[in-house]
Amino acid sequence: MTGKGLTHIDEHGEARMVDVSAKEVTERVAVAGASVWMKPETLRMVIEGTAKKGDVLGTAKLAGIMAAKRTHELIPLCHPLQLSHIDVTLQPVEEASRIDVRATCRLAGRTGVEMEALTAASVACLTLYDMVKAVDRGVVIGDIRLVEKSGGKSGHYTAPEA
Amino acid sequence: MTGKGLTHIDEHGEARMVDVSAKEVTERVAVAGASVWMKPETLRMVIEGTAKKGDVLGTAKLAGIMAAKRTHELIPLCHPLQLSHIDVTLQPVEEASRIDVRATCRLAGRTGVEMEALTAASVACLTLYDMVKAVDRGVVIGDIRLVEKSGGKSGHYTAPEA
Amino acid sequence: MTGKGLTHIDEHGEARMVDVSAKEVTERVAVAGASVWMKPETLRMVIEGTAKKGDVLGTAKLAGIMAAKRTHELIPLCHPLQLSHIDVTLQPVEEASRIDVRATCRLAGRTGVEMEALTAASVACLTLYDMVKAVDRGVVIGDIRLVEKSGGKSGHYTAPEA
Amino acid sequence: MTGKGLTHIDEHGEARMVDVSAKEVTERVAVAGASVWMKPETLRMVIEGTAKKGDVLGTAKLAGIMAAKRTHELIPLCHPLQLSHIDVTLQPVEEASRIDVRATCRLAGRTGVEMEALTAASVACLTLYDMVKAVDRGVVIGDIRLVEKSGGKSGHYTAPEA
Amino acid sequence: MTGKGLTHIDEHGEARMVDVSAKEVTERVAVAGASVWMKPETLRMVIEGTAKKGDVLGTAKLAGIMAAKRTHELIPLCHPLQLSHIDVTLQPVEEASRIDVRATCRLAGRTGVEMEALTAASVACLTLYDMVKAVDRGVVIGDIRLVEKSGGKSGHYTAPEA
Amino acid sequence: MTGKGLTHIDEHGEARMVDVSAKEVTERVAVAGASVWMKPETLRMVIEGTAKKGDVLGTAKLAGIMAAKRTHELIPLCHPLQLSHIDVTLQPVEEASRIDVRATCRLAGRTGVEMEALTAASVACLTLYDMVKAVDRGVVIGDIRLVEKSGGKSGHYTAPEA
């Protein structure tokens, strides 16, 4: 990490937005992952609800997609972006009593979209939480991380665990 | 869990907002916790930056506070609320190479504020992530959970691990 | 209409927000209706998609609920409100080749909620439009109107055609 | 309609955002129309108010313009766009006791702007409704439709009735 | 100022939101003032435009009203509020070549509304600026201040110069 | 000013958004200035707080940056933009008992960014006001103006007083 500092902190230690004017416009993609752990009976309720009408997972998916578009309003130093694609998938993993969330964002632009993908995944998880909290107070959201990233000068990145 | 179903899913399996018209106005408080794991050298950069000007932690704190106010815009079935207090604290835990976030929301109203606290904690974590991502791609956000809750008919709750 | 003028226009003809400080806090409910006409084969696609996963109608429903919460941001002279309940239902009417939307909003407050119900219904319709526009350019949204209203000093109202 | 399905529904029946990464950047224009029917005496009030200060129509116009900029926040699967132009006009039609609204949006981009034009027209109508509802409960909004569209691979489109 | 510190800074020097849970619900009113100076010929254009259709001043007025509703989104430590009334007036003062703006906000609540009034006045001024900037680059906005305030434990306040 | 009129007012005197479709994409920069006057003891509190943790000035800075991104939501006829850089600095001027704010916005686009810089400066000032208002009711915000502008067909501009 020699020679690199926190890009959002200037020489006086103050928060700052990175100037992306001079960055190249390239196709950028980021994939974020996250998981929501709940009781087995809660997960079964979600899955059965899903089997019938798909609404718990469907609602979380839409909330994640909509949140990605508002990332720059939530994260103070993020740039406003014109995402060309957002996708959020939710996969129940019964043996681990959890739901895995994966969010993908895409942009032809000057800055990476990992914060957009991470925000989409986080809000999808929070929405799941909201929909089951009345029957399960012990829900935990975690493992929110960058899974894959491409575009920009730093090249392709795949998380070790992915 | 006998006799209880997912409150946000109606008898036809469709997503719905809970009607809180008949709920009592009581003083409601919720505390949410979350953690952000990063490399030791990243954490040191944050702490040193903090020692000087406090900006990484200060920015995350403000982002969390501001996000709590927008919870109902992000989580589809949450009610708009007039929070009377929001607090977010961030505590570096050097031996575990992580930062612990705690968010507290307070309201005199008809509905609980755990989603507001969880949203504040989540967005504070995402902001931390954003500010260190240039030097550390392996940051992970997790352990987002309800720590404590009071007010409303379900009484006082403290998470087992708290 | 003797003795009554446009409440949003003051004596100088300028737009103004109605002052609701002195109005009574009562339980207020408003129901708005709207319809979306499309080709029979488009409607069949929506219904079949619905039968499987419910997403076209489910997405429109959520969009309507979320829009109700933002009415005061869209309609310049509307007051910010803390709605206690929002519901949006969508009913395909195959023989008329249309989908009927009904939105209900509820509030214990000083001002009526018909604009919130009308906004929810309108945005649900726009979302339906968005999801079928690639296969049907002739979709028409209409019949957006107040169906029922109660609470406040003007008493209960039911639209003649309801 | 052979070979075409609902673009917002994927093969599993779930809602999805269309990926526009590969679409061409072209000049895109969309014109939407809508109408608001009211009692003759309500319309006269609006027109007379207009003659003096223009505020009912002026307020609706601005609300429509501002709403177009927020379309992607309201319609879940719409992309955020940088509209280069938005125009909304309102034309009282006394013989039919209605006001005709027309909204035009323009963009150099990868996706059509009909949802932006339709949203602008709808919110202009809702604002008209809001401003006259105290004197006329029977107002109806309708005939919200695409009038004209150009740009993109599907070429120029003019609605039959336009 | 003995015994009083900055209420938004806690004992550790960090920004914080004031907890208003224990404050009394009273009728609160705040009036803010502001002025926009421009060239005499610019002011004349505004006034003449106003004489015809009222749009420069009308647009600024609406922008101010709408901005008041979003104060808590803009000012990090402001509480979300349900304003019961917002009014913005604009008065051209030809002899001083300026426009005076006055914004009034009203609330039955636990916290003062001066930030809402100041935000309304500021955004009305910025909107005036936007509408004349093409013909006058030397416009200056100033004298943004609290004019009058009542409600809450600090009693009635009138600015010395008011 | 011969041959030039208010660009936001059309031939009928109605408000309108300027169509920027045909404008060239150039690198555009705008710098806005503003000042906040307060009592000497208030300023000292801010500076001392700053010396310790930087939160009053840090909070105002972030609020300014975040507000710039929302300019098009606040100013009715502004275009949505993808700013590539926003910076806000705050400089206490003890001898004049004021804080000077300077906001810089940057964009590769079709329209100038002075409104974004002016909005950032204004909201930073309002945030300063909010944080000291409990100890100083006589705070005044002023001297909000364009300091410098480049890009676009009108060339480089520097305010006389800058």
SSE topology:
The structure is a homohexamer of 162-residue chains.
Chain A: E1 26-37, H1 40-52, H2 55-68, H3 71-74, E2 85-93, E3 98-109, H4 114-132, E4 140-150, E5 157-158
Antiparallel strand pairs in A: 1-3, 1-4, 2-3, 4-5
Task: Give a written overview of the molecule.
The structure is a homohexamer of 162-residue chains. The first copy, chain A, is of the alpha+beta class and 162 residues long. Chain A has one domain (34-153): 2-Layer Sandwich (Alpha-Beta Plaits). The first copy, chain A, has 4 helices and 5 strands, in the order βαααββαββ. The first copy, chain A, has helices at 40-52, 55-68, 71-74, 114-132, and strands at 26-37, 85-93, 98-109, 140-150, 157-158. A 5-stranded antiparallel beta sheet of chain A has the order 2-3-1-4-5, covered by helices on one side. In chain A, a hairpin with a 6-residue loop joins β4 and β5. In chain A, α1 crosses α2. The first copy, chain A, is elongated. The mean pLDDT of chain A is 90. β4 of chain C pairs antiparallel with β4 of chain D, so a sheet runs across the interface. Chains A, B, C, D, E, F: InterPro entries: MoaC, MoaC_bact/euk, MoaC_sf, MoCo_biosynth_MoaA/MoaC, Mopterin_CF_biosynth-C_dom. Chains A, B, C, D, E, F: GO terms for molecular function: cyclic pyranopterin monophosphate synthase activity. Chains A, B, C, D, E, F: This is Cyclic pyranopterin monophosphate synthase.
